[in-house]
């Protein structure tokens, strides 16, 4: 039953599907199917015949999760108007297009960050809803063994913790004259940007040292305005620039607090105006939980003073915060002021430092637009929250405050700002030459390399690591453990550049130092073994990669607690290598163990958790369980979008994998959609010649190829080739990938001679390259075999298939599905050549592998069985 369009107040968690269609009768049969098949997942479906009704509905509801479905029955101009609201409204979870295809005028919808797919059939759309909001309904063992994310309310958001840690670092920094000037200039810019006269800033700068920070905070709106804006909006750049003022004000509050004799409990009042939406999200929804004020507070002991500060207007609610302060129960600093030199009105006031934490005790609706919120000042937070805070603080602890701040910014996803701070710190330290300064300089240069690496700037990372190495040589012996750390970092960077010879050389240098200085089960040895495993994996030597990952794990077992976070990386590596070897059951088991460790650590909402769900989705994709695969990709995406900080490249990876999944499902419009989402992120994050962009162009080209748009595909492949030829050496395996892909296009165009020419270019590179993954060579031999089979040259076809099989049998597990594909291709070639009896042998081997890999009831097994039955009929065997 289609619901009416009457406006109501919603307080629900299941999504409401809002179907925008000018033809309601056309939508009704689709909606009936949705409700019949998803009653446990969706609250209701509402149909709106025009955009105005939609916008009215958005404005009228709170605490509702909306899925917007758009049909192509509206003009582009109307939909553009709607999209402005869609991007801004946080209650809109996702947007789907239900249409045959987007018109040229409507392709801008692809740019909507909330667009999750374009669907022609209601069955496909229903499937997408199930994957986004429900659990897969199947018999997977892992469904029961993988615990779900804890969606229960937490004491504080992770963003609050990062903001508090940032504040704690800011107030400990040392500021020189340059930093002081930057602070006043930031105030000028703040006023200029808002059309205000900044002449008052000149007075503020000239007289700053004549008055106390609290005097300026109370008497002049300048300091209050600038700091409040920086703190509340979490403008990290401005916080750094105005850090001196924040530090000075906090120190004076702390000094007054330390001298105070106050021991009895007292209450102060603060008036604030808030939008109803902000009040609902930040206060009403968190009753009983903690609330952080991201600014300094000026409160009064007189409630009427707080009330008089509030004026009614139709856009905001008036909120009186009644704050109970018990000096015996909290150590959060505040300054109790009863000195008229601070406040001429003679009122007793209290100034609380920024990031004061309160528990929301009670919320009372007084009348009309007036609310009272009773708060209790506290520094008692639950052990999990404290553990999380300590974990991040220790991870970002370095010799200098500025370096610690850079580490925190990098962790928060601000690699660019972290690099700016590290460069400035390097410029200061490099002027001195004593051992202490050299140690600090080496640490900074190493961290600069680490930040470069995370941004994909591998060549620059290498330069900084080598600078750190040169700096260390001035004060450390060549076999010092700190030298081994740099060697290992250099090795990992060479791996990223595809230079495996140098990667092995530096990794072995690190291993030699650590083997000499450490016991056989030392954790530093485990780090080197793990790095060697990663290099072998990248090179395609999966057997040795597995060996070193297992060595890493054995050391960790003997030296760490079973729930140590370090195990997560080991389990992840073991999962990845078993996946590459085709042992999907074992890979899934390791990923489940990765997940168990991650969910037990303080940072369970971190991007690493999204990466693990993404890996699980990839396993299901490889085993042909696309429902499960999309479900876990969606789960990864949800976690990543809520994570703080959000790593955009992790999001791009998930989008890419969803694109690949849709491509495998032959839903090419959706594949293109997600590849474009990947591209949008990468184009913002990387320079135009970055190799990751080349990979995404390659993926998009493949989709164009699949739908017969060969010219568009060739353009993108050639764009990829140009990028990779600039970035990689001439014998890099990725160049072979492009020649292979160009060969597949020529094969599709029946230009077999040109196809073979491109394939030969690819094999020539792979045979020469020391970084070749043998399985890439096997894939091209298989493609060449396919060309020879299509032109009836069965002898050459079998020769290339045998090359493929020989490599796969050496590098893959006996149950890997790729072996079945090769054996099936061989059976087809033999059958075409009238060698049916011999073909039967290969076909039977193929179906045995498929049964073990996918199970007896899988569609892939049925397909192989059908072909085997066809061969049996040819030989008259029942």
Automatic annotation (TrEMBL):
Keyword vocabulary terms for this entry: Repeat, TPR repeat
Any Pfam family hit: TPR_10
TPR repeat residue intervals: 442-475, 526-559, 568-601, 610-643, 652-685, 736-769, 778-811
Official protein name in the record: Uncharacterized protein
Species, as recorded: Adineta ricciae
Lineage: Eukaryota, Metazoa, Spiralia, Gnathifera, Rotifera
């Amino acid at each position: 039953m289609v619901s009416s369009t009457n406006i109501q107040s919603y307080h629900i968690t299941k999504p409401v599907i809002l179907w925008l269609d000018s033809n309601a009768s056309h939508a009704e049969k689709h909606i009936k199917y949705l409700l019949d098949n998803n009653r446990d997942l969706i609250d209701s479906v509402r149909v709106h015949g025009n955009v105005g009704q939609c916008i009215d509905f958005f404005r009228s509801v709170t605490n509702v999760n909306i899925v917007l479905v758009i049909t192509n029955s509206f003009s582009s101009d109307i939909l553009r108007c709607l999209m402005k609201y869609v991007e801004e409204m946080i209650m809109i979870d996702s947007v789907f297009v239900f249409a045959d295809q987007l018109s040229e005028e409507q392709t801008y919808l692809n740019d909507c960050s909330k667009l999750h797919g374009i669907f022609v059939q209601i069955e496909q759309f229903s499937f997408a809803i199930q994957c986004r909001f429900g659990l897969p309904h199947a018999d997977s063992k892992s469904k029961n063994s993988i615990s779900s994310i804890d969606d229960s309310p937490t004491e504080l958001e992770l963003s609050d913790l990062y903001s508090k840690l940032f504040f704690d670092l800011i107030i400990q920094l040392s500021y020189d004259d340059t930093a002081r000037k930057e602070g006043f200039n930031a105030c000028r810019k703040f006023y200029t940007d808002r059309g205000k006269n900044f002449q008052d800033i000149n007075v503020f700068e000239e007289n700053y040292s004549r008055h106390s920070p609290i005097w300026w905070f109370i008497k002049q709106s300048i300091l209050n305005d600038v700091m409040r804006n920086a703190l509340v909006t979490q403008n990290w750049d401005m916080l750094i620039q105005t850090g001196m003022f924040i530090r000075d004000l906090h120190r004076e509050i702390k000094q007054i607090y330390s001298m105070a004799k106050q021991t009895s409990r007292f209450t102060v009042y603060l008036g604030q105006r808030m939008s109803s939406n902000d009040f609902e999200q930040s206060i009403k929804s968190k009753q009983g939980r903690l609330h952080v004020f991201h600014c300094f507070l000026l409160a009064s002991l007189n409630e009427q003073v707080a009330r008089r500060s509030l004026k009614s207007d139709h856009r905001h609610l008036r909120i009186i915060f009644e704050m109970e302060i018990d000096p015996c129960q909290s150590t959060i600093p505040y300054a109790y002021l009863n000195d008229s030199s601070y406040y001429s009105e003679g009122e007793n006031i209290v100034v609380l430092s920024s990031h004061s934490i309160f528990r929301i005790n009670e919320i009372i609706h007084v009348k009309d637009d007036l609310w009272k919120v009773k708060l209790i000042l506290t520094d008692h937070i639950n052990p999990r929250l404290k553990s999380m805070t300590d974990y991040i603080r220790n991870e970002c602890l370095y010799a200098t405050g500025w370096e610690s701040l850079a580490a925190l910014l990098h962790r928060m996803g601000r690699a660019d700002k972290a690099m700016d701070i590290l460069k400035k710190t390097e410029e200061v330290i490099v002027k001195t030459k004593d051992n202490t300064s050299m140690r600090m300089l080496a640490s900074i240069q190493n961290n600069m390399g680490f930040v470069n690496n995370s941004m994909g700037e591998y060549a620059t990372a290498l330069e900084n690591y080598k600078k750190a190495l040169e700096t260390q040589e001035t004060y450390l012996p060549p076999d010092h453990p700190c030298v081994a750390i740099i060697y290992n970092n250099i090795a990992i960077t060479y791996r990223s550049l595809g230079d495996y010879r140098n990667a092995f050389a530096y990794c072995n240098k690190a291993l030699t130092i650590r083997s000499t200085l450490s016991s056989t089960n030392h954790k530093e040895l485990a780090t080197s073994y793990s790095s060697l495993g990663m290099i072998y994996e990248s090179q395609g030597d999966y057997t040795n990669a597995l060996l070193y990952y297992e060595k890493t794990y054995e050391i960790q077992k003997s030296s760490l607690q079973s729930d140590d976070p370090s195990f997560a990386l080991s389990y992840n590596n073991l999962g990845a290598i078993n996946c590459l070897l085709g042992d999907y059951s074992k890979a899934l088991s390791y990923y489940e163990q990765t997940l168990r460790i991650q969910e037990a650590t303080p940072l369970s909402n971190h991007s690493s958790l999204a990466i693990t769900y993404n890996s699980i989705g990839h396993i299901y994709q490889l085993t042909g369980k696309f429902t499960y695969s999309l479900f876990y990709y969606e789960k990864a995406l949800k976690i990543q979008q809520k994570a703080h900080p959000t790593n955009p490249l992790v999001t791009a990876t998930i989008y890419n994998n969803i694109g690949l999944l849709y491509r495998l499902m032959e839903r090419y419009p959706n594949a293109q959609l997600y590849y474009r989402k990947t591209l949008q992120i990468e184009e913002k994050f990387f320079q135009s010649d970055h190799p990751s962009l080349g990979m995404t162009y390659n993926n998009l080209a493949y989709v164009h190829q699949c739908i017969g748009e060969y010219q568009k595909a060739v353009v993108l492949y050639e764009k990829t080739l140009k990028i990779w030829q600039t970035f990689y050496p001439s014998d890099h395996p990725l160049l072979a990938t492009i020649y292979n892909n160009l060969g597949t296009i020529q094969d599709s165009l029946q230009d077999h001679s040109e196809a073979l020419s491109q394939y030969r270019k690819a094999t020539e590179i792979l045979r020469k390259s020391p970084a070749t993954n043998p399985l890439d060579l096997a894939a091209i031999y298989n493609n060449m075999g396919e060309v020879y089979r299509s032109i009836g040259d069965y002898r050459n076809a079998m020769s290339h298939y045998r090359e493929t099989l020989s490599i796969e049998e050496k590098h893959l597990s006996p149950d890997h599905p790729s072996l079945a594909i090769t054996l099936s291709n061989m059976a087809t070639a033999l059958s075409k050549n009238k060698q049916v009896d011999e073909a039967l042998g290969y076909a039977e081997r193929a179906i045995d592998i498929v049964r073990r890999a996918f199970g007896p009831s899988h569609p892939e097994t049925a397909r192989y069985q059908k072909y085997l039955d066809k061969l049996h009929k040819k030989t008259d065997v029942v």
